[in-house]
Write a structure and sequence with these properties.
This protein has 74 residues and is mainly alpha-helical. It has one domain. It has four helices and two strands. It has a two-stranded antiparallel ribbon. The longest helix is centred in the middle third of the chain and has 17 residues. The N and C termini lie far apart (36 Å).
Length: 74
């Protein structure tokens, strides 16, 4: 499901980790969001924030460097 929220079950599947660890990640992200003044729900967190914190933002990645590496490997 691609809603605004991601569940702990989806986190576990995405990261191939236990449900216990997924809930720990969700709690940590929700604590950070709460500090920023956002409302949160137990067992779910903001999908965009999850992806940004775990994988980084695409605008921060130097795509030219990745393209150069891909060209060198050919």
């Amino acid at each position: 499901m691609d809603g605004r929220l991601i569940t702990a079950k989806e986190v576990a599947e995405d990261l191939e980790c236990s449900m216990q660890h997924a809930y720990k990640i969700v709690r940590q992200l929700n604590a950070e969001l709460t500090e920023m003044g956002c409302f949160t729900m137990r067992g779910k967190t903001n999908r965009s924030y999850y992806e940004e914190r775990l994988f980084g933002r695409i605008d921060e990645i130097d795509l030219s460097e990745l393209e150069t590496r891909a060209g060198d490997e050919r």
